[in-house]
Write a structure and sequence with these properties.
Beta-carbonic Anhydrase, Chain A, 7-stranded mixed beta sheet, 5-stranded mixed beta sheet, 8 helices, 12 strands, binds zinc ion
């Protein structure tokens, strides 16, 4: 949604209310442009009840002549801070929208100030920009998890590889190999990003719980490849939950839910572990690998889940965790994840 300095572009999104609190879903964008200057206006029209319709204006405002505030990170810590700041903006934006929908204030425009250079786009109509991402992200293909939006990053900031279940296949490794060799000057950090209610992980869990369904997937090479890669995480998740809760855990009505979520976290951790090993073999300086899971309910990104979502610290909405570096490290991590999820879903703290 970027216009040239002397144009204004309107994006009108019509959103239908669904059951429960008003939510910005089912967006059908309609785009048209005018000939004014300096702002982009996004109109969000949605219904707060059966008869009332509200339009909220989002204004992206920038000054093309203002000095740029963008400073590329010089190390992994600064890169992490940029992701943290961006995620904070994203969470604040979602919260602001939801509050205006539910409490009121939707008649006031929401103004977002942009630094033109930080958009990562050429300011002049000549040539193309040089690729200079500061972070490499392996995420899931799930449509609900657009990586640049979750971290509120501009074009050219992230080198993103997305594949269902964020597993590490040969083609993914090829992309990473290219990135760390050709973009080593700007890359400072590698992130593996999973997400809750992941369909690929859920398929693997269901296969684990009822192997009779394997025939459905056995004849589909692509699906079988995905599920097989994730199955190691499912087994590790089942083992850690059983250690934390006891052998009777399989009888608990929330067992499947807890197992899916534990497997999501461990799948991201294992992928990060593998990726770290691969990067070490490539002898690259971009060796800092972290991982996290995007929670579709809270919008937080965490390496270890909160036991109680309602008590989660919003100031720490992004807490990426270093990739485990040994089997013992992985076991400790699995135990911490199992402990939190037992408390959340099974309501019995482990011994
Ligand atoms: Zn997924």
């Amino acid at each position: 949604m970027v216009s040239s300095p002397n144009r204004r572009i309107y994006h009108t999104h019509s959103c239908e209310r669904t059951r429960g609190p008003p939510n910005l879903v089912k967006v059908r964008p309609v785009v048209f442009a005018g000939a004014r200057k300096s702002s982009i206006v996004v109109k969000l029209r949605y219904f707060v009840d059966e008869i009332q319709e509200i339009t909220l204006d989002l204004i992206y405002r920038y000054d093309p002549l203002a000095p740029s505030k963008w400073q590329p990170p010089t190390d992994a810590d600064e890169a992490l801070q940029l992701l943290h700041d961006g995620h904070r903006r994203f969470v604040d934006f979602v919260g602001n929208m939801q509050q205006r929908s539910q409490v009121g204030g939707a008649d006031e425009p929401l103004i977002m100030h942009l630094d033109p250079a930080s958009l990562g786009l050429p300011l002049w109509h000549a040539g193309s920009t040089i690729q200079m991402p500061f972070a490499l992200v392996l995420g899931c293909s799930d449509a609900r998890v657009p990586v640049e939006r979750v971290f509120d990053q501009a074009f050219n900031n992230l080198f993103v590889v997305r594949i269902a279940g964020n597993v590490l296949g040969t083609e993914c490794l090829g992309s990473f190999d290219y990135a760390v060799r050709r973009l080593a000057g700007s890359l400072k950090l590698v992130v593996v990003l999973g997400h809750t209610t992941c369909g690929a992980v859920t398929a693997a869990v269901d296969m684990y719980l009822d192997p009779r369904d394997y025939e459905q997937i056995a004849c589909t090479h692509g699906m079988r490849s995905l599920v097989d890669r994730i199955m190691i995480s499912v087994r590790a998740a089942a083992k850690s939950l059983e250690r934390a809760y006891g052998a009777e855990i399989k009888q608990h009505p929330n067992y499947r839910t807890a197992l899916i979520e534990a497997a999501v976290y461990l799948n991201s951790a294992i992928t990060a572990f593998d990726l770290r090993r691969e990067l070490e073999l490539m002898k690259t300086e971009t060796a800092r690998v972290v991982f996290g899971v995007y929670d579709l309910e809270t919008f937080d990104v965490r390496g270890i889940p909160e036991a109680d979502r309602a008590q989660s610290d919003s100031a720490k909405s992004l807490s990426l965790v270093p990739a485990p570096d040994s089997a013992d490290d992985f076991t400790r991590l699995a135990a911490a994840i199992a402990k939190a999820l037992c408390k959340r879903y099974l309501q019995k703290p482990p011994a």
